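Two proteins, back to back. First:
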Amino acid sequence: MSESISQHPLPRDVAARSRGRGVPLLLGAGTLALLALGGGMIWRAEARTNKVALADGPRAVTMVVATAATYQPTRTYVGTLRPWVEASVGPQFVAAYVETVLVRPGDVVKRGEVLATLDCRNAQTSMAAVARQTQAVEKSQRALSNQAARTSELLDGGFVSSNDVEQELARSGAESARFEAQKATLANSALEVSDCILRAPFDGEIGERWIDPGAFVRPGTALVSVVDRARVRFTADVPEVDFAVVAPATPVRLHLHATGQDTEGLVARRAPNADAETRTVHFEVDLQDPTRRIPVGTTGEVHIDVGQPLPATEIPLLAATVRGARATVFIVVGDIAHALTVPVLGERAGSLFVGPALEPHARVVTEGRTRLHDGDHVDLTRAAAPAATGPAVDGGAR
């Protein structure tokens, strides 16, 4: 009975053996699936990888077309606008309290108009005393002069000696000298009194007011300033090497910063010598301004053309690397960038003017040139052409 059972296994054992043989098959299938999935992902990654080096591809840049222009060498100097005449008005002989100040900055005044008054009662009293003393000396001198004349007449009759006549004449001469001295003292007192009324020295405008009534002032203290703007002077200093540039009668162009006005003029005068400390030469340009629209004490620029106009090529300033008097640019021929070094003539308003070594209508790289090397391939994007600026200047203010 037992032998028959061992030779014929139970159905449960058969099912267990079947499951044991299916597990390796499932593991193998899963492994193959994972390998297939990993291989697919690797293939996809490899397919999307760029096999070409970035350095070997064309560089994306922006370019403009160079234009023909004219370059005019020019000097630019910064200067100051000053009135034709200017005066600081104040007492010159007396010290006193300020009684009134009748003007404010901007007031228009005429020559001789009263600007301020001082409390000069002490000077007026002193003048009155001197005037009385002068009158007394004058009467004394007149009496001595008459006495000397009568004594001289008695000399002919022998009634007086020559010595008496000489002494009378000496006393009369001394009194006459004292009278003249007293008149000078009186004139000085009159000057002090007149100094108490401050008047405009010329037609003009009040520029500044420094003192108000009640302040005590001394000789040399300025109360107000008067300026005449009917004619304005542009004044500037130039390096001594530009002495010939600012010769009298040289045409100039002026820009006034305060008003934004542009005007033209001529060099009116030039100093014959250079300043010993700064080694600069002073020059001036006169501007007629009868309507008094130009504020003085403000800043301006003067532009003076020198030499002759030269042919040039104009490019944007950002298209070049400037080193001293030379600039390096990249020009594009076909799709290849080539480095080119050219002489610099000048610059103006964001434009650079170079020599004719850079031909007009050449394609010049602007953006992206810092990543370029000579001979690189480029992918061009065209930028706006530089605006025409007319005759160029050489930049920098002096």
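And the second protein:
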Amino acid sequence: MKFLLIHNSYQQKGGEDHLFETERRMLASRGHTVIEYRRDNCEITNYSLFEKLTLPARTIWAWDSYHSVTDILRRERPSVVLMYNLLPLISPAVAYACQQNDVPTILHVQNYRHVCPAGSLFRHGHVCEECIDHGLWRSVVHGCYHDSRSASAVVAAMLAIHRAVGSWARTVDCFITPSQFIREIAIRGGIPSDRIALKPNCVDPDPGMRLEHQSFALYAGRLSAEKGLRTLLRGWSLLKRTMPLKIAGDGPLRQELESTAASLGLSHVEFLGSISRERVLSLLKAASLVVFPTECYEGFPMLIVEAFACGAPLVASDIGASHELIRDQQTGLMFRAGDAASLADSVSWACAHPEDMLLIGAAARAEYCEKYTGERNCSLLVEITERLIRARKERPNNDHKLNEN
């Protein structure tokens, strides 16, 4: 099967960038033909004055991406197009190019960008659903996208215009969400429920089960407000026994967190800074415990599945899709999001029950092998694609329902 993958890379690489790379490699390694159309936000730094002035308009309709994708479609005739992030250099214009060239389309919905210009449903330290309940222009009032009212207005306008003209319903045949949690938000945002397919993300290649571990806990991810790191440090200060903690990653809160750790006397907390994914996986295999203290609606937290793959037991907050991935006391421990005392209680229990945590880690590894391998993921993606192609052939009136249960 021939796939065209379309993706707008972020300046600071994130989950969608990782998903794009994983599925590109996964499909190619299993015998499928993969073509790419990729733009990178780093291009913007080299834009001319005219290009910068026209960027807001192209966020709504990127005519250059439209023409480039049209050329690829006519030259390559792919079986299906997989779309990832489209903001700001690609835009929904490419979905119209696919429709006009009669090529089926699948759009990954990995975050909440379709209902929230910031993409996170998180503002000023708490979950925020104002744009869902009261309209996209609330994001402009708060300057949610890049802390800028003008930038938020551009993204809100793009979403509002394409929602008003029905772009997604008219041009996208199938939407893939990695969790039921994101699926429910997507439906609230107007995406047709009968076109949504559930397919979790994966860890591929398999990093392998750990053979031994050391006595430390690990957090790996962005150091930003929504990740619950202030709660993590407060919780660590409440522990009655010393537990070394390694914090891998960088972000806007790093300096504050380092100062907080020093003021709380947490000399056993080590900040590693930004490290490679290979190094993260090696730390996951070595850690006796992985902590995931997020306080936002994580749609499909990759750290959880990476910990599963390595057999590393988890302590995670009970928010977003974590409930779908973790079975409390079986494949991980859960605590109340934002509650430092609850986090400390879970970590203390884990420290006091090392044999139980080994069993939890083994169960987590079994969960990975059953649900989150590259082989399983590729089979699901091909199955969704084949079902979509059959549906298009059977419904020439463009009613591409997937009949998902």
